[in-house]
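Form 7-S
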Amino acid sequence: MIAIIDYGAGNLKNVKHALSTLKIDARITANPSDLKESSGIVLPGVGAFGEAMNRLEKAGFVNEIKSQAERGQPLLGICLGMQLLFDRSFEYGEHQGLGLIKGDIVRFQDDVKVPHMGWNQLKLNGAKKDFAINSQVGDQDYVYFVHSYFARPKHREDILHETEYGMTFTSAVQRDNVMGMQYHPEKSARVGMQILKNFGELVT
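Output:
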């Protein structure tokens, strides 16, 4: 069973619907102890970084997410959920994240339209093209974005996908069992469903 974390800042129903369509067993939960019983975790997210971290902390999820990630349980962060995996964000001040992937969350510069919204293409990190999460996903495949901030990983090897938007930015990351997508796989048609299917297979 995949646990979809409900902390009041996520696009839960669409993620649950996408996983159900793929016949992947998933449950929305607001109970941190359920993470111990799950075989995989999805951390969705919409809104501001600082408020989302406060909600996670108040709901008791922060330590449990870190604990399960350290145990090797597959963890997928989506959109803001991916950003929360990092050390810190500079969205409306400076805020500490989960620290599961080294790096910062920063804002797009004013020379591009913000937010970055709509369909854009992926470029796979060549060193990770054959990773299971990339099965049947290719360079130039389109996925759907809505975001004003992006991840700047400290280590190049953590980058899974990149995208061009006035610059090259990181659009997906992976460090061991911890993965994150800045785009919304649940809104990204065939490619997004394939990525969710691949995650489900990693879990099982």
